[in-house]
């Protein structure tokens, strides 16, 4: 089958494995890596099919797994073709092939689970639901439910193996048919994006510095203990132990009682039964307002956050464990179409997106900063090459809205954050630098990155006071936050106007209009992007009121709000993602053609950043090549000013 210009043998494959009480991927204590390396792991069987040849499809039972290895290893020689592996959840099956079949890997990765996420955004992507969506009238194309009969059974009878084999081969055939059905509508670049995503996961290249990970874990534990002890001195009962106090902070009823004793009103929200319950989650808006309104209890808020979940500690432990299970290597699991805007998201409890950087770029003035990121290293003889697109969302937003002064700042290499800060504080922009006005620049940065999508003054005030974008809190009163919002909107009138344009897009999508506007094509319930994929708003509904319309949408009915500013954010993020994917494809092919992927390849990406591991003597050369690619605007936005930055090091530190 021809895939992106190459004729591949499509191998559709599905593993059936033991699962039981406490041991399954639905258990939050497990991820795929732990599941596969657990002593309980057992392959009951594996089904395989070549292209559409159902007559010669095979189900190998557990006792035939050696035969399956021989069969797999002989495929390329037998057919004299490269192999494209097709599964429904290839991240799972591909890892089993790597871990249990002597690091077997295909020449190309396909995945109908990923394709389902991209084609039916927001809908369940499992094979059962996908089959119903693809063939609503064909009852013969349905996923069976026989797997449940093997629950808690490590040893299967011949009869049970026959049933499981039939179930498996039905899945294999459905997966192949689903790929054929969706592939005709799927852009080539997106098929390639799926291949890269799975290669990051199933063909690991990073190595891990276990000593640094131990340092990070110990540091997080000491920080947690310090925060709890400090809060306990102020808020715990005199006879309470640290453990007792931590439980008090973790329990909503006990924490509510503590707040009431302090004279702080506990915010409430409705549960699914329409009952009032405390709104004390870190993402609850009323709790965020509470935190912003009571900075005198900052120690208590920090202790509550740590008691509920220390994300950095949890992530460091998972990274360390996965690297140990995987022989010192670290796969990079990402979710293709992890967000509705088509961006990737972190997976498998590692969330290797948005790892904190060093606090001061190349110079590590604080050894505790960026340690988790720095623990990811190139193998001996290699280097990590990193390039990220500078403020890509800000550039795309300025371009779609045609905010000319911002575009000029980007083209001239000037700092939009300092420019915004000059307007906020009434300073002379020409006399400002990052070193001379770091605090003002931070406020300008938060304004530029946070106010481009319609955020109001009250929300912005909460953001500043609770710590915006991973920064420390920026204490301020509401009038100051309101003045920043007003200054931003006055300075960026074209961006504000684009929010209104997006309100019109929503109205046009709702009434079923179809037309092109720049790189976008507006249609019923969707906006087509220049890469052939779409922002999707199923079941879009409008409700008229005195000031206009409110819009809602959702796969299960109109239960999610959408408005002009929010749609602006969706469009900007989606276009930025189209750009980075096009650039990754160009870079990756360059690495393949000039060095070979066994020597130099992309190993990770983070929204606006791509990461490669290459031979040490090729680092600077590859860095320059990546810079050339990432400064070239796409064909659909030839006047979009792009700039990238990064570096070359033994570790992932830039």
TrEMBL record:
The answer, when asked if Iron is one of the entry's keywords, is: no
- Entry EC no(s): 2.7.7.7
Q: Which GO terms describe its biological process?
A: DNA-templated DNA replication; double-strand break repair
Q: Which residues form the DNA-directed DNA polymerase family A palm domain?
A: 369-618
Q: Which GO terms describe its molecular function?
A: DNA binding; DNA-directed DNA polymerase activity
Q: What keyword terms does UniProt attach to this protein?
A: DNA replication
Q: Which reaction does it catalyse?
A: DNA(n) + a 2'-deoxyribonucleoside 5'-triphosphate = DNA(n+1) + diphosphate
Enzyme class comes to transferase
Q: Which family does it belong to?
A: Belongs to the DNA polymerase type-A family.
Q: What is this protein called?
A: DNA-directed DNA polymerase
Q: Which organism is it from?
A: Motiliproteus coralliicola
């Amino acid at each position: 089958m021809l895939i992106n210009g190459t004729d591949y043998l499509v191998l559709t494959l599905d593993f059936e494995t033991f699962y039981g009480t406490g041991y399954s991927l639905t258990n939050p204590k497990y991820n795929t890596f732990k599941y596969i390396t657990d002593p309980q792991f057992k392959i009951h069987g594996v089904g395989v099919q070549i292209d559409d040849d159902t007559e010669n499809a095979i189900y190998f039972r557990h006792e035939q797994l050696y035969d399956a290895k021989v069969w797999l290893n002989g495929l390329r020689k037998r057919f004299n073709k490269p192999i494209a592996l097709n599964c429904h959840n290839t991240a799972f099956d591909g890892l089993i092939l790597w871990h249990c079949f002597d690091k077997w890997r295909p020449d190309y990765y396909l995945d109908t689970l990923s394709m389902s996420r991209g084609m039916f955004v927001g809908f369940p992507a499992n094979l059962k639901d996908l089959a119903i969506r693809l063939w609503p009238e064909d009852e013969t194309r349905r996923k069976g439910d026989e797997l449940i009969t093997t629950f808690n059974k490590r040893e299967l009878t011949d009869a049970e193996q026959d049933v499981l084999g039939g179930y498996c081969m039905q899945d294999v055939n459905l997966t192949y048919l689903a790929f054929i059905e969706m592939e005709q509508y799927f852009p080539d670049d997106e098929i390639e994006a799926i291949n890269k995503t799975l290669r990051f996961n199933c063909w690991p290249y990073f190595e891990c510095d276990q000593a640094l990970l131990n340092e990070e874990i110990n540091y997080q534990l000491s920080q947690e203990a310090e925060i709890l002890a400090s809060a306990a001195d102020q808020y715990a009962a005199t006879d309470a132990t640290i453990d007792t106090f931590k439980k008090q902070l973790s329990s909503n009823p006990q924490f509510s009682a503590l707040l009431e004793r302090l004279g702080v009103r506990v915010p409430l929200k409705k549960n699914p039964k329409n009952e009032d319950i405390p709104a004390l989650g870190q993402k609850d808006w009323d709790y965020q307002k509470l935190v912003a309104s009571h900075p005198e209890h900052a120690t208590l808020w920090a202790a509550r956050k740590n008691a509920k979940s220390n994300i950095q500690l949890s992530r460091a432990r998972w990274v360390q464990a996965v690297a140990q299970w995987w022989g010192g290597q670290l796969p990079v699991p990402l979710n293709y179409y992890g967000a509705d805007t088509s961006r990737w998201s972190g997976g498998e409890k590692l969330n290797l997106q948005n790892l904190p950087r060093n606090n001061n770029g190349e110079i590590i003035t604080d050894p505790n900063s960026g340690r988790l990121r720095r623990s990811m290293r190139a193998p001996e003889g290699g280097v990590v090459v990193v390039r990220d697109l500078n403020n890509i969302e800000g550039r795309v937003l300025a371009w779609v809205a045609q905010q000319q002064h911002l575009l000029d700042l980007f083209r001239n290499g000037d700092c939009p954050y300092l420019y915004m800060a000059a307007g906020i504080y009434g300073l002379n922009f020409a006399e400002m630098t990052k070193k001379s006005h770091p605090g003002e620049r931070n406020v300008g940065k938060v304004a530029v990155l946070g106010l481009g999508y319609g955020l109001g003054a009250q929300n912005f005030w909460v953001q500043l006071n609770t710590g915006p974008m991973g920064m420390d809190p920026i204490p301020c009163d509401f009038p100051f936050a309101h003045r920043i919002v007003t200054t931003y909107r006055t300075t960026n009138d074209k961006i504000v106007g684009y929010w209104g344009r997006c309100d019109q897009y929503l109205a046009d999508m709702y009434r079923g209009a179809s037309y092109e506007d720049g790189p976008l094509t507006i249609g019923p319930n969707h906006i087509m992007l220049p890469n052939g994929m779409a922002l999707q708003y199923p079941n879009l509904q409008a409700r008229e009121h005195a000031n206009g319309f409110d819009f809602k949408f959702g796969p299960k009915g109109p239960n999610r709000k959408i408005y002009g500013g929010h749609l602006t954010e969706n469009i900007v993020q989606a276009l930025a993602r189209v750009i980075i994917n096009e650039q990754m494809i160009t870079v990756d092919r360059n690495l393949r053609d000039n060095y070979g992927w066994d020597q130099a390849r992309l190993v990770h990406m983070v929204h606006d950043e791509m990461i490669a591991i290459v031979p040490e003597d090729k680092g600077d050369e590859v860095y320059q090549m990546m810079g050339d690619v990432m400064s070239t605007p796409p064909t659909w936005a030839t006047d979009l000013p792009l700039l990238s930055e990064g570096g070359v090091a033994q570790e992932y530190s830039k």
